[in-house]
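Appendix B, example 12.
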Amino acid sequence: TPLIEYSDPPISSLVYPTDAIGREVGRMLIEMYHRGVNRLPGRYVSGRLEFRASFKPSNKIQRHVNRNIV
């Protein structure tokens, strides 16, 4: 979020792919309409952890964490 840019030190945060989330929401709404239901099981859209100065692990740990975030 834009507020993170003003923190000192910069705060690590989760980055969510809003386009992918929007597409998945659209698919779910269409599926709900076709099935005539008001609810579906939840879905997962992977994000990534953006490491900043507030917590700066090694590159190896960063790769491991970002591969395993769901």
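The helical segments are 18-35, 59-68. The longest helix spans residues 18-35.
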